[in-house]
Amino acid sequence: MFERFTKGARTAVVLAQEEARELGHTTIGTEHLLLALTSDEQSGVATLLREAGADRQHVRDAIVRHVGDHTTEAAALADRDAEDAAALKAIGIDLEAVRAAIEENFGAGSLRLPHPAPKKRGIFGRFSAGSGHIPFSPRAKKVLELSLREALRLKHNYIAREHILLGILREGQGLAMLVLTELGADPAKLRADLAGSLESRAA
């Protein structure tokens, strides 16, 4: 399936991971796919979404309202780690020196937990946006699978951003769909507009 994705669609999927990471979320949901589709304001899909009332800022605000912005929690954990290291140092324990001594005796990386055996990788393991892989939610995986079905239904041999949005609309139950509904988007009109956009692409 991956090889069918256009450059724009691949970019949108990678951006979805970045959007989830920036919000401090632990999974990539349908909402992150929607937010990624609004990111390239020059794309036809972003234009259709903007005309439907779902521009980037409104979508992001709705996601934060429903799920929250957890970036401050991640920053707080990092601050707590630094405080713990400083407290240990104050009583004569240099955490970095302890780590160095353990690695010297037991080998580099000995403090890291072992990685679980790799699972069979499907399409979703092949998209990566750098370090700190964030998994797709089952619903987001379903949307990407439905984007393929939408492409096949339309007899297209590629998957574009439009197909991803059609997948969101076809799945119909995720947070992305709730956000679109709250912002006043008409799913039937969006479907028709997407079909028109794909027809003009093929012409």
Task: Provide a descriptive summary of the structure in words.
This protein has 10 helices and no strands. It is elongated, with a radius of gyration of 21 Å. The protein has about 200 residues and is mainly alpha-helical. Helix 2 packs antiparallel against helix 8. It folds into 2 domains: about 140 residues, Double Clp-N motif, CATH 1.10.1780; about 35 residues, no CATH class.
How much helicity do the residues have?
55-70%
Number of strands: 0
Q: Identify the overall geometry.
A: elongated
Structural class: mainly alpha
| CATH superfamily caption of the largest domain | Clp, N-terminal domain
Run of helices and strands: HHHHHHHHHH
CATH class of the largest domain: Mainly Alpha
Which radius of gyration do the C-alpha atoms yield? 21 Å
> What's the overall average pLDDT, rounded?
79
Report how far the terminal alpha carbons are from each other.
24 Å
CATH second-level architecture of the largest domain = Orthogonal Bundle
Q: Can you tell me the residue ranges where pLDDT is under 50 for at least 5 consecutive residues?
A: none
Largest sheet: none
Tally of discrete structural domains: 2
Tally of helical segments = 10
Fill in the CATH topology of the largest domain: Double Clp-N motif
Strand percent estimate:
under 5%
